[in-house]
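Supplementary Data S3. Sequence and structure tokens for construct A.
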Amino acid sequence: MRALPEPRIPDPRTAPVLRWGVLGTGWIAERFVDTVQRNTSQRFTAVGSRSQDAADRFAAGHGIARAHGSYAALVEDPQVDVVYVASPHTSHRDHALLALEAGKHVLVEKPLALDAAQAGEIAAAAGARGLFAAEALWTFFLPRYDVVRQLLGSGALGTVRSVQAEYGEAFAPDHRIFRTDLAGGPLLDLGTYPLSFVTWVLGAPETVLATAQPHPSGVHGQLAALLTDRAGNQGLVHTTLYGFTPTGATVVGTEGVLTLPGPFPQPGPVVLDTRAGRLTWTEPAVGHEGLYFEAAEVARRIADGHTDTPLRTLPDSVVTLAAADRIRARSGIVFPHEHPVPTS
């Protein structure tokens, strides 16, 4: 190999134009809408929030014509083809089902749901209605990851023996990641990135070992997990909310080592080291500006009549959440939906 492969991602501006509804008006919704409007031809026709004021403010700030003061009104809007679910993690399952039951395609922010069972419900509902559904794990839609996808598929690394990925950040004390009622802690937030990377490369784990450290707020503050496949190949995941880390990822194979310098979930370089030397592919490190690639891919798939995308399939999302379930079982992490709800 004399050079790394070029990404096969089509020009996002040429994707068929769909009418998007935005469910939720928080940080990620702001960034998703902004970058999609700057870099694609997609149209945002409506936004929905829990309050009319919040919906009105978001609509005014982003040039969206229709603002709904409830999520139910948004998903029933006849001017919406696909709903982008950007509500808190604890509501992803309910809001995805709400949109699907209204006959709308859905792109659901990561994590797809709180656990594998909830993710399975979303997949079943989409399948029963013949609608598109996918997890908005934007990393897998980036050009950087198509380079990785080709390298893994070509066998350039030989047999993969280990995968290592980590992600740590520091947060203000009032951040939602410290709220137990919102399934806080890093696992389903920051940890989704390294865990999805490991399960993407190695597949569903045969064994899982994990340990977590409690945070004074009541959530887990950091955790580490070791996942092995049937052959004993290893995946190492670490995530923490105690501080910023290099956020790198490495795949070690018998014929080469693939490195994604941090932050590995974002646009950036791909480095392959083999006995023949080092090859590097680069792209501008534009951070969350790269969110638009997922919108263009979804539009293409829906316009072509598909109900899934090979870049992040629903089964892949279920595998990641099933691994997270096993990590939580091993490390004693319990989310709010797993507690009995009092009847009086």
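Construct B, processed identically:
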Amino acid sequence: MPEQAIPYTLIRSKRKTLAIQIRPTGQVEVRAPARMPQAQIDAFVRQKTPWIQRHMERIGQAARDRAASVPFTDAEIRAMARHTAEILPPRVARFSALAGVSCGRITVRSQRTRWGSCSAKGNLSFNCLLAQCPDYVVDYVAAHEVCHRLEMNHSPRFWAQVERILPDWQAGRAWLKQHGQALIARLPEK
């Protein structure tokens, strides 16, 4: 019996690689190089179907959790952003020293899709919801983003760097996988 195709929106651009993003609404977006053959894109989506289905189930669970949870107020979000902005710089400094890198500006935002990011210029951005996470989770996200100063990808070399500066990083990642969507679900709709 043939695998059922996952419906998706295709976005072509000047990028060089394929990527899949699942929106909080459950909409699947595939980003592809402008000239990549459609058959190659479809094969990629078929190969990633188990991953897509797992993430869509998480989004469905988050939607169910959202229906049962109270959204954060604007005042709570501002307070979390202030707290996160206080606790992250010392962690970033510590992990930067361990990694042997420098980092640029640190910003904190209310984000629905990321816990942190690192720009090509070395600026780091973090989710204000980290204020609701255990310390070891905050350490994991800080170390993760600092390691992007060494490797701007999630290759085995990147994870080796994370392991080098934070040997117990897996616990933080596991916590986010288990509890992160429920936290994000409490952000008010924009």
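The chain has a mean pLDDT of 91. Strands lie at 9-13, 19-22, 28-33, 106-109, 116-118, 124-127.
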